[in-house]
Amino acid sequence: MNLRSEWMTDSKYFGDDYPNNALLDDARFTFEKVKSGSDGVDAKVDGVAERIVAQNHTNPLNQAQYDKKLLFDMTSRVRMGSIIEFDNKHWLVVRKIYDRHAWKLTSAVECVGTFTVYKNSTATNVYYHIENSIQLYRMGVDYGKYINVPEGQIVVRVQDNDTTALITRGETYRIGRQNYKIVDIMDAIQPGILIFKMEWTAESPEPIPSPTPVQLVPISGNNEIIFGKSATYTTDEDVTFTLTGDFATITEQTARTCTIKAGNSYGEVILKAVNSEDEEGTKTILICDIW
Question: What is the pTM of this model?
Fold first, then answer.
């Protein structure tokens, strides 16, 4: 069942004595019925669970314009740029939100993948959609005036949020199997959406640092031991110590202390401490000369 885009010609909600209020009640009833039918889907709107209506466009002229027509409760906080999750896919809302009094109406395109953004010591997967000239023209963008896309360039749309707002021109990201550099960013064409003009590059994205493992059992002590010398390491709880590596040996240990004596060869050893709950901590120790 398809819902009409307009259920009455008047754009305002009338007083209690106006006959169109009955039509509004009927529209709300119909919307609830459609939500519970085959077009209704359980979705997440920017992470918030909602029951929505997702329909394919029936007008052939619109087939290339958007992937899905979406209808929401009037209480929904959906906006242009929202990420909608349903059918094991992610969709980007790319049209203004129309108030139909009984429901909210908009359209969304399917995100084709993610790229990784590393900002403020946090790596975030950002869902994106790649545009072509027809889609840009039909979403209201003057293709020739605003976005001229030669060979080797793509136009990408993403949600404008706290993470993507930190992206700047000149940064390189992995899009599909290729690397692309951002040459222009537009945020005023569609509020809530960032449009990236990107060009292919032989450069690689900046490497993302590996996260520092959480030490559930911290070990205190020096990071280096001089050839032939000894050092003591301690924990705040009872543990069992083990040492990996051929450049030093454990000479004695108690429930919370461990003494390590270095050999006469340069290298690293790893001291591990494991408590009664199998939680562990490690410390890398360099065996080195006095020089």
Answer: 0.64
Residue 98, phi then psi, degrees to nearest 5: -95, 130
Element (H, E) at 125: strand 122-131
Domains in the chain, CATH or no CATH each: 20-110 (2.40.10.210), 113-200 (2.40.10), 224-288 (2.60.40.10)
Interacting residues of 189 by C-beta distance below 8 A, sequence separation 6+? 140, 141, 146, 195
Tens digit of each residue's pLDDT (9 = 90 or more) over 197-220: 999 999 999 998 877 777 899 999
Q: Alpha carbon of 166 to those of 19, 151, 192, 193, 271: distances in Å?
A: 51, 27, 14, 14, 40
Gap between the Cα atoms of 40 and 38, Å rounded = 5
Lowest mean pLDDT segment, chosen from 107-111, 209-213, 241-245: 209-213
